[in-house]
Specification:
single chain, mainly alpha, 64% helix
């Protein structure tokens, strides 16, 4: 069975980066530094995760 994982990618580090990005987005919105509506915030978060999933499922570079 062929694997599509890239051995250069550390999944723990990648997971921390994703959690950090979403956390920063939410905190910036909550503190008023990201002047968008709640709906836009959710939409942007979903777009981020969709892009991440699409990239991750593309296979090795």
């Amino acid at each position: 069975m062929e694997t599509t994982s890239d051995p250069r990618i550390d999944t723990a580090t990648t997971s921390m980066a994703v959690v950090g990005a979403i956390s920063e987005m939410l905190l910036s919105w909550f503190n008023g530094a990201l002047p968008i509506s709640r709906k836009e915030l959710v939409d942007q978060g979903l777009l981020f995760f969709e892009a991440l999933a699409k990239h991750a499922s593309a296979g090795p570079l």
